Amino acid sequence: MKTDMELLDEENENLKKENERLKSVHDLMNGTLQTQAKLIAQLKGDLDILNDEYKKQNVLVQRLSELLACPDLQLENERLKLENS
Where are the domains of the chain? Predict the structure, then answer.
């Protein structure tokens, strides 16, 4: 039969192993989180670029519609702007 001290030593060793395992899991998750944060930042930048391009194209379409002076095209452009908002 094990003494109380032996049982406490075993429990202490088990807790040390669990602590090391949890540290490893933490480090792995932290690395994954940093990678995902970088990807999110990159995607936000890409989205900003796409939004800028969309705005430029919309201005161009609007201007061309005005130059053509066709009410139907202006209405269609307004409808498309509403759909994409």
Answer: 4-84
The per-residue pLDDT for range 49-81, each reduced to its tens digit, is 999 999 999 888 888 777 776 667 677 778 888
3 in the Ramachandran plot: left (φ > 0), alpha (ψ -120 to 50) or beta?
Answer: beta
Cβ-count burial 34-71 (b if 16+ within 10 Å, e if not): eeeeeeeeeeeeeeeeeeeeeeeeeeebeeebeeeeee
Contact between 23 and 16 (Cβ < 8 Å): no
Please state whether the predicted TM-score (pTM) of the whole model is above 0.90.
Answer: no
8 Å CB contact between 78 and 65: no
Q: How far apart are CA 68 and CA 62, in angstroms?
A: 10
